[in-house]
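Sync notes, pocket subgroup
Present: LS, DG
LS reminded everyone that the earlier model was apo-only. Rerun requested with adenosine-5'-triphosphate included. Inputs:
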Amino acid sequence: MPNVQGLPGTPVPHPTPTETDAPSGDLIEAVGATAAYENRRARIRLIALRDITLSVRKGEFLAIVGPSGCGKTTFINMIAGFVKPVGGTVKVRGQEVTGPGADRAMVFQNYALLPWRTVEANIAFAMENKRGQVPKAERAERIAEVLQLVGLKGFEKSYPHELSGGMQQRVGIARALVTKPEILLMDEPFGAVDAMTREAMQAELESIIMETKQTVVFITHSIDEAITLGDRVVVVSNRPGTIREVVDVELPRPRFAHQDLKSHPRFQETRRHLWALLSDEALGAKGEPA
Ligand SMILES: Nc1ncnc2c1ncn2[C@@H]1O[C@H](COP(=O)(O)OP(=O)(O)OP(=O)(O)O)[C@@H](O)[C@H]1O
Ligand SMILES: [Mg+2]
C-alpha cells in the first residue's frame, strides 16, 4: 500500500486478495431498484428511491451526488445488503444481493464505530468478521499500515469518544480499507475532515484504487470532489430519488498528478453542468408542498 505522504508514480496493477475470477464488465447492477421505508405506527410508506437502473463496471469509480434526503445512502445500503429493494433487483457479480458480504466494505456517513473498542480494535473487527481472509499473523501489520495511511498513527489505543469527528471518520475509512475488499462503498467519507486532510486523502484514495483496481461507489456533497475522483458522476433527483443524469468525467488519471486540475477546461465544463443539474433539483425541492 502506498504511504500517506508520497503521491504515486506509475501505478503497478496487482489483484487484491479478495478479487475473484468474475468476468470483466459490470460488477454491480441495479435494475429498476426501488426502496421504501415503512412507518407502521403512522401507516406511511415512504418511497426513498424509485426505479434505479445503473451498472458499475469492475474497477470503476462511481461518484453519486444529489440533494439531502434523495436516497443516496439508501442506494449504497442496497448494494451493501443492508436494505432490500421492494421492487427491481440489485446484483453483484450477477448474484442478487441478499445480505452483507466480505467482498463489500462500507464507510458509514455517521462513522458507526464501536464505542467500547479502541481504534485498533475497531479496525481489527473488520478482519475478525471475515475470518480466514486476513491471516492472524498479518493483522497487526495491516492495522499499522492503514493507520499510517489515514494519519492516525499513535492513536491505536484511543477510544472513539477521545477522537474528533474527522478522526473517527478516518478510523471508519481505515476499517473499510483494511480487508482490501473488491468493492468500497463510501458514504461521504471525507465530510468531517478538514480541507487539507481531505485533499490528501482524496489523493491517497486515488492512488490506492489505481493500484488495487477496487471498485468504488462514493457519495459526496462536493461537486469538485465528485469530478476529481469519479469516472462517472450520477446525479440523483429529489426524493423519491431517480437518476437525473449520469455524467462522464473525461479527465486522465492520476488526477492528482495534475498541478491545476480544477482549471482544466473539461473540469470546469463538467462542474458547470453538474451545478446546473443540482440547482435545478434544489429549486424543485423549494417548489414542493411542505
Ligand atoms: N431507516 C429509515 N427509516 C425510515 N426512513 C428512512 C430511513 N433511512 C432513510 N429514510 C428516509 O429515506 C429518504 C432517503 O434517505 P437517505 O438517507 O438515503 O438520503 P441521502 O440522500 O443519503 O441524504 P443525505 O445527503 O442527507 O445523507 C429520506 O427521506 C429519509 O428520511
Ligand atoms: Mg446519506
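DG: The mean pLDDT is 88.
LS: The first helix runs from residue 72 to 80.
Action: DG to write up.
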